[in-house]
């Protein structure tokens, strides 16, 4: 059985630790909060992030990254995107031999416009990096930790490494597929959070299922348009890390992005929403990054664009919906190869 470091003891890092521990791996879970790590080691719980869940005893908590990564064969990064570069620097300074880097975070870095696998390649020299693999798909921590049926995709340009990660995680509750399209998997996983914010926002405004279905469908069209321009396989967007994750995030009671959008639609300010959530709402920064990426690539992304104005330029949400509905008439199906 393998020894794996999980860097990030929030909801998703803790839930994925349970999957690995159920598969009899030795999990070294890093978190920055001493009290939380003490709770994980002594009471085998993480009440703030996974209430009412018992953690298996083969999950050990660490507060120093140096200790968590010592002797492991793979490092799973699962902190919010804004924290990734800092943890990577600390890993680089302490890692002694090459490991597989897996990440399960969902975001794009504003300004640099890097995907997370690109940040890993930038920060971690090849001599200590066997490969980079992303794990993504429709998977809320709350359900994974209850061992409810979940399916995800393991993606790497080295398919043997994607299969290695598939083998680490796969069990009878957690089914893992592989896909070599790293760009498509990362873009789908990151950008669906923008659409979930929009779906929550229309709910907050009092609109129903027609509006939600419209946002999801046209949202997927613009995600695919950008992804294909960046080199993704169009079919990936119909898969687990595309359509699958879009469905779960736009319709689940667990979705942080949907809940944040809902509060915005009900008139709360962005600051009020983020303060109240207390958990990662990746869609906000990803909207900024996707807006910048669309501009750089010359790709039309109307939903992302109006949400950017709602989040960062105080556009009224009701006006944003009216703007989308009043766009110039167009064809539905486009030639995505253009
Ligand atoms: N929660 C889910 O169901 C889920 C599922 C799939 C993917 N994800 C993705 O996983 C990533 C983590 O999300 P989460 O839901 O676990 O978040 P969370 O809010 O539950 O936990 C975040 C964790 O990161 C830590 N953290 C926050 N800022 C930090 C910093 N600057 N430096 C170091 N640590 C920091 C927090 O202390 C906490 O332990 C996100 O990219 C999210 O999109 C989440
Ligand atoms: O709760 P959300 O909106 O951060 O979404 C979590 C996961 O990405 C769902 O797959």
Topology, pairings included?
Elements: E1 3-7, H1 11-22, E2 26-30, H2 34-42, E3 59-62, H3 65-69, E4 74-77, H4 84-94, E5 99-103, H5 116-123, E6 129-136, H6 141-144, E7 150-155, H7 159-169, E8 174-179, H8 182-204, H9 209-229, H10 240-251, H11 256-265, H12 270-277, H13 283-297, H14 302-312, H15 317-325
Helix pairs in contact: 4-5, 8-9, 8-10, 8-11, 8-13, 11-12, 13-14, 14-15
Could you walk me through the main structural features you see in this protein, from its secondary elements to its overall organization?
The chain has 338 residues and is of the alpha/beta class. The chain is 50% helix and 13% strand. The protein folds into 2 domains: 3-180, NAD(P)-binding Rossmann-like Domain (Rossmann fold, 3-Layer(aba) Sandwich), CATH 3.40.50.720; 183-325, N-(1-d-carboxylethyl)-l-norvaline Dehydrogenase, domain 2 (Orthogonal Bundle), CATH 1.10.1040.10. It is built from 15 helices and 8 strands. The chain has an 8-stranded mixed sheet with strand order 3-2-1-4-5-6-7-8, with helices on both faces. Strand 2 (26-30), helix 2 (34-42) and strand 3 form a beta-alpha-beta unit. Nicotinamide-adenine-dinucleotide binds at residues 8-13, 31-33, 49, 78-81, 83, 86, 104-107, 139-141, 279-280, 282. It is found in: Cytoplasm.
């Amino acid at each position: 059985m393998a020894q794996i470091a999980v860097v990030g003891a929030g909801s998703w890092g803790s839930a994925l630790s349970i999957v690995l521990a159920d598969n009899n791996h030795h999990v070294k879970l890093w978190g920055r909060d001493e009290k939380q790590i003490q709770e994980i080691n002594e009471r085998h719980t993480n009440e703030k992030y996974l209430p009412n869940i018992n953690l298996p005893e083969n999950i050990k908590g660490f507060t120093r990254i140096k200790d968590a990564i010592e002797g492991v064969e793979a490092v799973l990064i699962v902190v919010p995107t804004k924290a990734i570069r800092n943890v990577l620097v600390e890993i680089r300074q302490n890692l002694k031999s090459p490991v597989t880097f897996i990440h399960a975070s969902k975001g794009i870095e504003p300004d640099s416009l890097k995907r997370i696998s690109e940040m890993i390649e930038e920060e971690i020299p090849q001599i200590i990096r066997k490969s980079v693999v992303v794990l993504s798909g429709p998977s809320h921590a709350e359900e994974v930790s209850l061992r409810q049926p979940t399916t995800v995709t393991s993606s790497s340009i080295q398919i043997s490494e994607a299969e290695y990660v598939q083998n680490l995680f796969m069990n009878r509750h957690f089914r893992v597929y592989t896909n070599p399209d790293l760009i498509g998997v990362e873009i789908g996983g990151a950008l669906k959070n923008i659409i979930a914010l929009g779906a929550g926002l229309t709910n907050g405004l009092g609109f129903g299922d027609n509006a939600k279905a419209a946002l999801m469908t046209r949202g997927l069209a613009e995600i695919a348009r950008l992804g294909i321009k960046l080199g993704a396989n169009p079919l990936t967007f119909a898969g687990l890390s595309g359509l699958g994750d879009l469905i779960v995030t736009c319709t689940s009671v667990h979705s942080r992005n949907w809940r944040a959008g809902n509060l915005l639609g009900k008139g709360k300010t962005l600051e009020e929403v983020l303060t109240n959530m207390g958990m990662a709402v990746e869609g906000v920064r990803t909207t900024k990054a996707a807006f910048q990426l669309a501009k750089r690539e010359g790709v039309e992304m109307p939903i992302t664009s109006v949400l950017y104005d709602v989040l960062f330029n105080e556009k009224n949400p009701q006006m944003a919906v009216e703007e989308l509905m009043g766009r110039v008439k167009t064809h539905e199906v486009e030639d995505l190869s253009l």
